[in-house]
């Protein structure tokens, strides 16, 4: 079932097997926590109401992913990444398992003017992204994941509404692709790829990527402003 929050316009899906049939139920928007009321009574046919057929097959158990668990969690102020930010402050989420590399990248980002937070795990990163839209995300594809193609932070970013995703510049650190490989960046749905061998140059690479990204979206963003969509 596709759900749209009337308050923040976020879209998300609920597996059909998890939707209560023939009743009214409420859930919280994972973005703005607005209460959403869902009525499924009209989806139940009269015959099914009168003659419910017992099922002989066991219902499949759907295993919750970390993303599902975080999205369905309740609000906890301690999970906010920053207590206070000045107006216009830029923020960065740094997801890097290697402490030496993490320290080096953090120093670079802070010198660029970013307020940086370092989640300890993918679960921690997802909780922080629930309550804050970061300007920059630097993600090592093996952060909290042995399989880079099953990275939960990457999957979460891929699920974001496009309007939200455009606000985030995502840098993927990897040893599988060359730095600034545009095709790899496109396939992984990130803004720029940085090979870990070039981590010492990440500041210059990010600045160049941000400049190119701003030029690419300038006309698009101007058109949105003129049409009153932002």
Automatic annotation (TrEMBL):
Transmembrane segments: none annotated. It comes from the Bacteria. Residues 39-52 have a biased composition (Basic and acidic residues). Residues 39-64 are annotated as: Disordered. Residues 1-36 form the Zinc finger/thioredoxin putative domain. InterPro entries: CheY-like_superfamily (IPR011006), Znf/thioredoxin_put (IPR011723). Pfam families: Zn_ribbon_4 (PF13717). This is Zinc-ribbon domain-containing protein. It comes from Candidatus Desulfaltia bathyphila.
């Amino acid at each position: 079932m596709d759900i749209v929050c009337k308050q923040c316009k976020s879209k998300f899906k609920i597996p059909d097997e998890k939707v209560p049939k023939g009743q009214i139920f409420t859930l919280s928007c994972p973005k703005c926590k607005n209460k959403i009321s869902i009525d499924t009574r009209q989806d139940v046919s009269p015959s099914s109401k009168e003659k419910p057929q017992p099922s002989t097959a066991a219902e499949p158990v759907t295993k919750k992913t970390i993303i599902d668990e975080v999205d369905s969690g309740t609000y906890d102020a301690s999970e906010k990444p920053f207590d206070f930010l000045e107006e216009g402050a830029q923020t960065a989420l740094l997801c890097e398992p290697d402490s030496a590399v993490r320290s080096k990248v953090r120093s670079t980002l802070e010198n660029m003017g970013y307020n940086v937070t370092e989640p300890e795990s993918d679960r921690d990163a997802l909780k922080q992204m629930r309550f804050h839209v970061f300007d920059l995300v630097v993600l090592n594809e093996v952060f909290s994941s042995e399989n880079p193609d099953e990275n939960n932070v990457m999957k979460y970013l891929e699920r974001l509404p496009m309007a939200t995703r455009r606000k985030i510049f995502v840098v993927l650190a990897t040893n599988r692709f060359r730095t600034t490989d545009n095709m790899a960046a496109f396939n992984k749905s990130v803004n720029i790829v940085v090979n870990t061998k070039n981590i010492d140059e990440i500041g210059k690479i990010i600045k160049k990527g941000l400049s190119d990204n701003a030029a690419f979206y300038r006309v698009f963003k101007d058109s949105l402003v003129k049409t009153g969509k932002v």
